[in-house]
Design a protein that fits this description.
Blueprint (H helix, E strand, L loop, with lengths): L2 H20 L3 E4 L13 E5 L2 E5 L9 H7 L7 E4 L5 E4 L5 H6 L7 H4 L8
Antiparallel strand pairs: 1-2, 2-3, 4-5
Length: 120
């Protein structure tokens, strides 16, 4: 990974950590971006008695299907299911309806818009 790619990855991991903290959750980047066996993947989130392990991905042009559907402000959740039984729920972190459903104070959205722009 080039230093430019590493900077972008670090930026986006920090963006997610800051967002989760705005939501009132404990969050931290995993040491060495998940290279260590005891600290898998990119981000660890703790909320109440739940520990979540997160993998962060970034694409400048978005994720075609997901981005297209979730940019529509009328759609709150994108439900994905595949033949092998995988089922996924996706939502836009700026969608007030989805945030209210998971108990997030939507007034915190104002702080989200002040997060820095990514490195080039």
């Amino acid at each position: 990974m080039t230093s430019k790619e590493k900077r972008k990855g670090t930026y986006h991991e920090n963006w997610w950590v800051e967002l989760f903290k705005l939501w009132g959750w404990e969050a931290r980047k995993q040491p060495l971006s998940g290279i260590l066996k005891d600290f898998p993947h990119d981000i660890e989130v703790r909320t109440k008695n739940v520990r979540l392990i997160c993998e962060s991905k970034y694409r400048a042009k978005g994720f075609a299907l997901i981005s297209k559907i979730l940019r529509d402000p009328v759609v709150n959740l994108l439900l994905l299911k595949d033949k092998s039984g995988g089922a996924f729920v996706c939502f836009n972190v700026k969608n007030e309806g989805a945030l209210k459903a998971i108990g997030i104070d939507t007034n915190k959205l104002k702080k989200l818009t002040t997060l820095h722009t990514p490195p080039k």
